Amino acid sequence: xxxxxxxxxxxxxxxxxxxxxxxxxxxxxxxxxxxxxxxxxxxxxxxxxxxxxxxxxxxxxxxxxxxxxxxxxxxxxxxxxxxxxxxxxxxxxxxxxxxxxxxxxxxxxxxxxxxxxxxxxxxxxxxxxxxxxxxxxxxxxxxxxxxxxxxxxxxxxxxxxxxxxxxxxxxxxxxxxxxxxxxxxxxxxxxxxxxxxxxxxxxxxxxxxxxxxxxxxxxxxxxxxxxxxxxxxxxxxxxxxxxxxxxxxxxxxxxxxxxxxxxxxxxxxxxxxxxxxxxxxxxxxxxxxxxxxxxxxxxxxxxxxxxxxxxxxxxxxxxxxxxxxxxxxxxxxxxxxxxxxxxxxxxxxxxxxxxxxxxxxxxxxxxxxxxxxxxxxxxxxxxxxxxxxxxxxxxxxxxxxxxxxxxxxxxxxxxxxxxxxxxxxxxxxxxxxxxxxxxxxxxxxxxxxxxxxxxxxxxxxxxxxxxxxxxxxxxxxxxxxxxxxxxxxxxxxxxxxxxxxxxxxxxxxxxxxxxxxxxxxxxxxxxxxxxxxxxxxxxxxxxxxxx
Amino acid sequence: xxxxxxxxxxxxxxxxxxxxxxxxxxxxxxxxxxxxxxxxxxxxxxxxxxxxxxxxxxxxxxxxxxxxxxxxxxxxxxxxxxxxxxxxxxxxxxxxxxxxxxxxxxxxxxxxxxxxxxxxxxxxxxxxxxxxxxxxxxxxxxxxxxxxxxxxxxxxxxxxxxxxxxxxxxxxxxxxxxxxxxxxxxxxxxxxxxxxxxxxxxxxxxxxxxxxxxxxxxxxxxxxxxxxxxxxxxxxxxxxxxxxxxxxxxxxxxxxxxxxxxxxxxxxxxxxxxxxxxxxxxxxxxxxxxxxxxxxxxxxxxxxxxxxxxxxxxxxxxxxxxxxxxxxxxxxxxxxxxxxxxxxxxxxxxxxxxxxxxxxxxxxxxxxxxxxxxxxxxxxxxxxxxxxxxxxxxxxxxxxxxxxxxxxxxxxxxxxxxxxxxxxxxxxxxxxxxxxxxxxxxxxxxxxxxxxxxxxxxxxxxxxxxxxxxxxxxxxxxxxxxxxxxxxxxxxxxxxxxxxxxxxxxxxxxxxxxxxxxxxxxxxxxxxxxxxxxxxxxxxxxxxxxx
Lengths: 547, 547
Hints:
The structure is a homodimer. Chain A is an alpha/beta fold.
């Protein structure tokens, strides 16, 4: 494979930091300050974005109380002495000490060799094993997710405002969040604020039609993060604002039409957000030589990976032991402090000096609850309500880099109370043309008379093609349907219902068109099927099989 | 087809306005004020977004000097007495007086009947007839376009900063804009500012490597929009800031690797922006019963469509005659004034009173040139430089709805001089998995050793598969290549070059995987091809044909 290395990397040895979250950014920041002690080395940071996201503010983006760009800081000005690579990581080869970066604007990968490696790759959302959640629930993890959730809510309300079908209306006005930890409660609080604020402007929507539901597996929210008193305070605040909380239940599966809980409860909804499961980065999973517990990289008390010279791990992807035998929790506070230890120990390992051990006691916990309210536990003291909210915003403002920026954001926030939130929705060019969908037994994929916008291929399950109450055919794995309306540019001529839980691939009209107009074989195959089915639906002698 | 009508639409007669640009929004605003005069009617506005974009600020979004949300206003608060439908329009049936709106969250279309119709649908970007422009040039027309151009520039610079291949580096650091009218000059000015400002932070990029090129078909910029003196002023300002201007040339075609001008000049570039061609909305084209000139709807002097009772047209999609026999130019100033006439005449047609005729003389012209400079011609006076820029921003601020918002935006702008622009790039979930691409003769689609990220299907043209300098095969229309690396998860085993101008469809790895893992026939076909080709490439007796 053709290899490239960077011309500006000055033939120095390289400390490569993977990941630009709190852990990675702070390691690079501390290393920069100590560069004089390690003159033979340079710092390289690899991250998929050129900005750093202040994660705790993501929920505020949903509600729109914070400008999108105010939650992020460009990395380059923060790290002027670091070589930043804005790339996806394709592979990590510990044996060859080589990181392969994904190509961009070309197909040639980029290879980066390291002398010292820092793994701070966090974790990723993982919906494996939860049927349909990957396909139909929105994750809440990064900035794009916040934006997507916000847009989805605005879309749903816009649509509901002109919808006359009572069933669809109900689905559009029901919003479900799975998981009552920090991110779940913050997300549901902001979503609830946005929805209830928005519907006031829609005379056609009765506020009583709106349901915002939090599904939580325990009997109170924030059970792991906050003391009982503050957890209850947060919970009561949510309830008072109109959030329904379903306790001791879990989000189990999702379809385009409903959320299904582990006890079988079905909640018809078009907007399902899941904050629950996260799993280590697949790249970390793939490195079998790393010692791991529950998928997290095991380190010693100096954050060096167990049994590995020259590799350190920190943050959410690492299992870091502390003095009292417990492990560091996966929070920003800890990642930031771990970063300092990592930087010191890398310098110590280069200069053969004394290494240090990581220890830290949490200062406290803060959680925002939307609408100028928050809960906080700091240095043993508990705060709630508007004071905790000011504390929350104040701490954020302190951390914002740049004086003028602080003023700008501060002014924006101060004015926020006077300026009503515009529910403006920026539509970006959307989604892939081939989407996997999951339906449960009895659900309808499309109805006779609907617009033909997708072709469907059955991946798993069985469907019935129905017309005028009669079943015309049953289709199973590998078979497809919906091509008739696409080929003939007309409305659906039959209804398709799922006979069991069914996974399908949906090809959008445009992509279907591109494929069949260019793929001769495919086209004739579709036309043949169409011919057979048409004659069956429109009165010719029925056939036993329509596949 | 199942029909739905709105429950909150109170059995009144409907004035339906199509399009939420300057024309449509102002028609609805004027009608709202006159609702008392037409008690039997209600107003309906259909627009694809729930916000109104202040088009003249779009270029500023590229440069980042204006927050995205400051260029838009939510429509609902502007039009509290109007029924807003946020939908795409699927079809317009003038005979049945019916508008079909695209389904959302369901597959069922929505039908809207009208009594009075206002067409204010503007025009759309049209690259037909320009090879590869649709596929590889970025349009500059709406908010998402500005955002995309900004992201593309940031991506290109990030990539260039670590690129060692001199050819690719050159392509990454060359930015081409086609068209020297208002939008082209504004776009190139902002792009140039952004690029030159950004590269200062990249020690690995020499500012001399950067080229920003404006291609214009005439011998000076803004030739139609501005007097010679101001046009020359604008032009000199651009030149002084480092923009290259190629006069008397047109952008003719584009590939993933270069821009090609009508005189054959080839400019290697990864970032090509085209501001030139626009054409009426296809929905207007489809209505053959409408009288049209050059695709624009012909109206009388009262903006009523010629020969059509109850239908009015205005803005960029209409051909509106004025007192002196000339036609209204397609600018916001005119659309806003036309809107008032349309609203008055609708009310007059309902009440059978005297209709009025449209007339207006342009107040002047304003064009921003980035970096606190602009040109203006107002009421016969000419301004240029920083004063014109303040005028430009001042007029915008005046038009912003809401007092607190004015202050917020004003403060943000004032601080802009102190706060350096963060080149933060928000990546949204990207693009379709099936993309049409255009290559010119001699260009390379991929090289041996590259990462296998796409499967290609040839739509038109011929390619050669080469290895070690030998041609292994030639492929033509309907044939595909690139499946080997995808099936076997390895690097490309050969190089593919275009023997003539070639159009291909590229299927991304993920979508290819979804298709073949679910489409048994396709899979076995690909595997068979792969088997044949492998044996040919890896030393088995050569075959005459590898298709």
